[in-house]
Amino acid sequence: MRRILLVIAYDGTNYVGWQKQQNGLSVEEVMNKTISKFLNEEIEVIGASRTDSGVHAYGNVAVFDTESKIPADKFSFALNERLPEDIRVQQSMEVEANFHPRKCDCIKTYCYRILNRRHMIPTERFYSTFVYSPLDVEKMRAASTYIVGEHDFKSFCSAGSQAKSTVRTIYNLDIDKDGDMITIVIRGNGFLYNMVRIIVGTLIKVGLGVYPPEHVEEIVAAKDRGMAGQTVAAQGLTLVGIEYLE
Amino acid sequence: MRRILLVIAYDGTNYVGWQKQQNGLSVEEVMNKTISKFLNEEIEVIGASRTDSGVHAYGNVAVFDTESKIPADKFSFALNERLPEDIRVQQSMEVEANFHPRKCDCIKTYCYRILNRRHMIPTERFYSTFVYSPLDVEKMRAASTYIVGEHDFKSFCSAGSQAKSTVRTIYNLDIDKDGDMITIVIRGNGFLYNMVRIIVGTLIKVGLGVYPPEHVEEIVAAKDRGMAGQTVAAQGLTLVGIEYLE
Predict the structure, then answer these.
(1) Of A99, A126, A137, A118, nearest to A14 (Cα)?
(2) How far, in Å, CA of A66 to CA of A216, rounded?
(3) What is d(CA B228, CA B72) in angstroms, rounded to the nearest whole number?
(4) Could you tell me if A118 lies within 8 Å of chain B, comparing CB atoms?
(5) In Å, how far are A39, A66, A216, B84, B240 from B45, measured between CA atoms?
(6) Cβ A94 vs Cβ A108: under 8 Å
(7) What pLDDT was estimated at residue B160?
(8) pLDDT tens column, A189-235
(9) Which residues of chain A fall short of a pLDDT of 50?
């Protein structure tokens, strides 16, 4: 028995998210069916990140166990021939039999894209959120300094989270502007339910001038979801990648 | 009677192209129906560029005549409330009654995106073409110098073109590489049928090393479609904008 790790990219537009659900098709379900059929074995993948409906990935991670003798690096090409076009395995390799993608220490990187202009660009509608009023990126950068570091992120966690602790460490939060597109890249040792989307919603309020950058320090300290900005739309969010430590 | 000009962006994925067709829904048809219903007048737009099925636009141009007294700049917002999400008017303004978007001198800018990597990224599948083998961008840049300038582009024109002359001027052809994404921006006073897609197909052959950059000079001189590269896929192409002169 070998454990195979897959790095998986997907367009989340047509899925209910990573995790299997009653109400529609999930990426996990497509992976299970495709690999099971290919190997003629009953395969259940274990995913690293349960991305929400509409959220995209360049590099989510999943593992599965198989009796197959196929060289590990061949799985990416073999599965891509059988997967729908909106899911593509980027890499495949063998890992230790006890490697668990949710139980090993890792750093996750997310990216959130905001289109800040007078009118939406249709080709960006599934891959960014649209903000009409001009955002002050310098203020958003100033606010981001209160997010970086180890904090209790309870203010940035939606109800329904099962996390035991709400303390997380954010290593980097970079805000880049290229024309009308603002890209926020955030890297941390873990993220609470909707945490990236609530951080972005809060930074947007700062960018609009609703409150000053310094107020974000108070929002963090309050440990109160009601203080932070709204949860921005899923389609702007992409799980860029997961780095495993050891 | 006033003539209103619209700058229109669209995601071409779900359309048969700009122009009305028997075999499916066109952007032109959606524009005609939406404006006619909004104004309660029979409106027929005149489009500047008849983009093909799957080709996108940030700034195609169309005009229509109306008896309406609505301020010209309000049309963009009013129509965007009524158009499907994959079409968005970027700008609206009044122009001279005799302004014809296909009969006035203009400069058009197109952009073509090539994803050059080991596996496709699903979120890019409708907005780029995928090339697995590594492309030599320096060689592609060297080849592009033979395209820039006034030339007879007969070698780069698909059968079925109705153009009287095949002489066109390309002002700029810039090739940019950002990570795995190669973006080709081409600006000229007019383009023959499939001309951008055949130029890109030719540059890809140079990038793959099929022939040296200098060979593109011979391809231009030959005035023979059979000499040039293949017509690359529509989805990588975007009409960026049209600048009207004078």
Answers:
(1) A126
(2) 48
(3) 45
(4) yes
(5) 55, 59, 50, 17, 20
(6) no
(7) 77
(8) 999 999 999 999 999 999 999 999 999 999 999 999 999 999 999 99
(9) none
Cβ atoms B225, B37 nearer than 8 A: no
Q: What is the dihedral of CA A93, A4, A241, A23, to 10 degrees?
A: 150
Pairing of strands A149-152, A56-66: unpaired
Write down the catalytic residue from B52, B65, B136, B152.
Answer: B52
- Strands, E, within chain B: which ranges? 2-10, 46-47, 56-66, 87-95, 106-116, 129-131, 149-152, 167-178, 181-188, 237-244
Amino acid A159: pLDDT: 83
Q: Which residues on neighbouring strands pair with residue A238, listed in sequence order?
A: A56, A111
pLDDT in tens, B112-142: 999 999 999 999 999 999 999 999 999 999 9
Q: How confident is the model at residue B161 (pLDDT cuts 50, 70, 90)?
A: confident
pLDDT of residue B163: 78
In angstroms, the CA B168 to CA B191 distance is 7
DSSP reduced 3-state for A48 = coil
Chains A, B: CB contacts within 8 A come to: 62
Place of tokens 């229109």: B8
CA angle A35, A37, A43 (to 5 degrees): 50
Give me the pLDDT at residue B159, please: 83
C-alpha to C-alpha distance for B190 and B90, rounded to whole angstroms: 22
pTM (2 decimals)? 0.94
Q: Determine whether the interchain pair B123/A90 forms a contact, defined as Cβ–Cβ distance below 8 Å.
A: no
- pLDDT (0 to 100) of residue B152: 97
Q: Where are the beta strands (DSSP E) in B41-178?
A: 46-47, 56-66, 87-95, 106-116, 129-131, 149-152, 167-178
Q: What is the CB-side half-sphere exposure of residue B97 using CA atoms within 13 A? A: 4
pLDDT at A162: 77
Residues B143, B203 contacting (CB under 8 angstroms):
yes
Q: Which residues of A touch B88 (CB under 8 A)?
A: 119-122
Give me the pLDDT at residue A164, please: 86
Contact A45/A6 with Cβ under 8 angstroms? yes
Helix (H, G, I), strand (E, B) or coil at B199: helix
Please name the residue of chain B whose CA is at the shortest distance from the CA of residue A127.
B123
The HSE-up count of residue B62 (CA atoms within 13 Å, CB side) is 28
More confident of the two residues B159 and B130:
B130
Nearest-by-Cβ selection for A10 from B86, B122, B126: B122
Which SS3 state, helix, strand or coil, does residue B217 take?
helix
